[in-house]
Amino acid sequence: MILLHDIWRIILITNTILAFYIVFHRRRSVSTTWAWLIILIVLPILGLILYAFFGRGISQENLFAINRQKHLGLRNVQKTIAQPPKKTRPSDTSNKGKIAIKFFNKNEDTPLTKNNHVTLFNDGKEMFKALLRDIQNAKETINIEFYTFYNDEIGNKVLNLLIKKAKEGLDIHLLYDAWGSMGATTSWFNQLRKAGGQVLPFITSRNMITRYRINYHLHRKIVVIDGEISWTGGFNIGDQYLGKKKKFGYWRDSQVRMVGSSSLLLQERFVMDWNASIDKHTKVITYNERLFPNLDETDIDNGDVPTQVIFDGPDRYDSYMRNGMMRLMLLARKRLWIQTPYLIPDDAMFAAWQTIASSGVDVRIMIPCKPDHPFIYRATQWYANELTRSGVKIYIYNNGFLHSKTTVIDNLYSTVGSMNQDYRSYSLNFEDNVVFYDKKFNKKMADSFEEDMKHSTLLTKEMIKKQGSWLRTKQSISRMLSPIL
């Protein structure tokens, strides 16, 4: 007994020393540091195993592969936008958004584009109908990049159409996150490969277990067709996004279809992600005019929506997208409306929302009424309660599952993309967002938010008081661990 006691004491001491070394030897936020320290100390040995898989940084090999990618089409994009539309719409608010535009384009790799026709989709059936039509009408190239690409009814419908287009001679490239696409096996994707298409898992998906890197995901959702038409937003490829999963019910999401020069930026992002992920059997995509065509005003269908496409990931030193979105939100004078399925902000974003609300701005945040991840949902509830006490209006969407990631700022700016309001999107995932500097598109976004409010419940302080002690305990524990969820 004494021997076992001594062995256990040695394990605990060693575990504690290792915990402090592991957590503090790498630069990370204070909240994340303490969350991991708690896990490592409270769960000896098991905590070290969890950290090995979920806590370590992205590998230097992956970082190098991602960072070495060059901007293949940026010069062509710059050439396209060098001559903006002859007529500037009164709806154009990009002049008032210069502060945010300058921040996002500080490295001169995120230019503002103005030749864009933009359509908003909130319903999965309508979105997939239009997306499949675009794929069917593709003439030369189709590039697809998704976090989730399921082997189910809609997944097979999309894959079979891609196979058909590949047999017609089109260049097809498909990039996916293996962790997010459970069930989509190599043999399933081989159907497209045999037809002449090319398929790859994103670089962080390869050897996830053996290299202890399963915490970094390709969360972007990008489709680019013929270098002119592009799609991005919150929808992935799967039946649940059509409301066919009983667990979620109706799926409320947001996706944008863009025709114009902004598509060239999404095309470039796809090419860079693809080239970072290639294996020894896959060829690098090089610059060509089929991927990056010269677009002029005659190619755009009555479009003049000022648009900025932004990207972020753990390959960057700073929280570029989080900081940029915060800068954009701080421009709000009348309203800041946000939709997010996960409400787990870091201290900086939390303080920003409190400050904006305290300044008399109408801050509303809409969250789902049901969880898809229990711990994350309890943490979301904790932050919802605290923000309510700070004067932020929290709306709980009751008509199914809300997965939309959007913002509406005054009547000037709006965003749609893949970025959630949580730690994971801020620092762990590879994300993309689109910022629109346009009053007319802003109104569409605001009208959509107000329509969703008809199916939502406003969280009140009285409702918070009625929450049971066990629920509050789960919320507090989840919040404490939120930086690593």
UniProtKB/TrEMBL annotation:
PROSITE patterns for this protein = PLD
Q: Which reaction does it catalyse?
A: 2 a 1,2-diacyl-sn-glycero-3-phospho-(1'-sn-glycerol) = a cardiolipin + glycerol
Q: EC class of this enzyme? A: transferase
Which residue positions are annotated as catalytic? 219, 221, 226, 403, 405, 410
Q: Membrane-spanning regions, if any?
A: 6-24, 36-54
Q: Which UniProt keywords apply?
A: Cell membrane, Lipid biosynthesis, Lipid metabolism, Membrane, Phospholipid biosynthesis, Phospholipid metabolism, Repeat, Transferase, Transmembrane, Transmembrane helix
Family per similarity comment = Belongs to the phospholipase D family. Cardiolipin synthase subfamily.
Entry-linked HAMAP family: Cardiolipin_synth_Cls
**What is the protein named?**
Cardiolipin synthase
Species this chain originates from? Candidatus Lactobacillus pullistercoris
